[in-house]
Structures are given as structure tokens and as C-alpha cells.
Specification:
By secondary structure, this protein is mainly alpha-helical. Helix content is 91%, strand content 0%. The chain has three helices and no strands. Helix 2 (94-132) runs antiparallel to helix 3. Residues 40-59 are annotated as: Disordered.
Amino acid sequence: MAGFQSVVPAVVGGAVNYASTQSEARQAQSAQAANLEAARRQRAWERQQAQAARDHERRMAEEAFAREVALERERTRRAREIYDAENPPAEADPGLVADRLNTLEEQAAARDTRARELAQSKAQARARAAAAGITGGGTAKAIQRNLIETSRKSGERAETQYRIRLDAQDKRHARNLLDAENRRRRAMLGLETQMEPRA
């Protein structure tokens, strides 16, 4: 009987230790699950904030571009009014006016296309980076910088071509004005010759 009594405390103690260990394990699992859920919610909140910031940035860029296009169209309209006022119908160059307007419209459309393509490329790069687990890292930032630099170089090349076209149109305009002035002078000289008294 004494042997039995000596075994009971050991069994009870082992059972208590086992129950305590199980309880601690459950608590650890619960704590880990809570931490994982908190981390998930934090990531979701960060993604939401990042998306809101990107949406705001995109809206601001679109509004700025719309203002720039409107301003460019107003400048084009005013330039056309001045051009038409300075050039009587007989001396005007309707083809030049059309070329100028087409060039400016193409330039504005090209800028819009570049801005949209850059925004789309950046969004795709962010999605790929997120899928690869490199959000916010140096690699993701390098990819973004590379996209911006590529777009900038492409824009510079396109703008150079538009400047060349606009410069050629300016020279054509200057030649037209010079030709018109020469015609007026010749007409005046002819008129003055006719008005000279005959000897």
C-alpha cells in the first residue's frame, strides 16, 4: 500500500505538468494566431494606404495634365487668332495653320500616351514586385527609377522631333511673311513708278 501511495503523487504531478504544458501550448498557438492576424491586418492596411496614395497621385497627375492640355489648346487658339490677324487671307498659309495645329495636338496626345504608359508600367512593376515579395525594397525602387528614366528619355526624343517640326513651321511662317512684305514693296514700287511724272 505504501508503494501505491508513493506512485500517486508522481502520477498526479505528471498529469498536472502535462495539463500545464498543453495549456501553454494552446496559449502559444492562440498568441501566434493573433500575431499572424494582426500582421495580416497591418499589411492589408498598408496596401490600402499605398493604393490610396497611388490613386491620389494618379488623379493629381491627370488633373495637371488636363490643365496643361487646356493651356496648350488656349495658347494654340490665341496663336491662331494672332496669325490670322497678322496675315490677310491673300497672304495666309492655311496649310501651315493646319500643320501647326496638327503638330501641337499630336504632341499633346504623345505626352498623354507617355504618362498613361508610365503609370501602367509602374503599376505592373509594383504588382510583380509584390508577387515576388520585394515590396518597398531597393530592387522595387530601382525598377521604378528605371521606368521613369526610360520614359523621360523617350519623352526627350519625342519632344526633340516635335521641336524640329515646330521650328520648320516657324521658318515657313517667317518666309511667308517675308514673301508677303516683298510683294507689298514690289507693288508699292510699281505704283510709285506709274505715278512718276513723265518727262
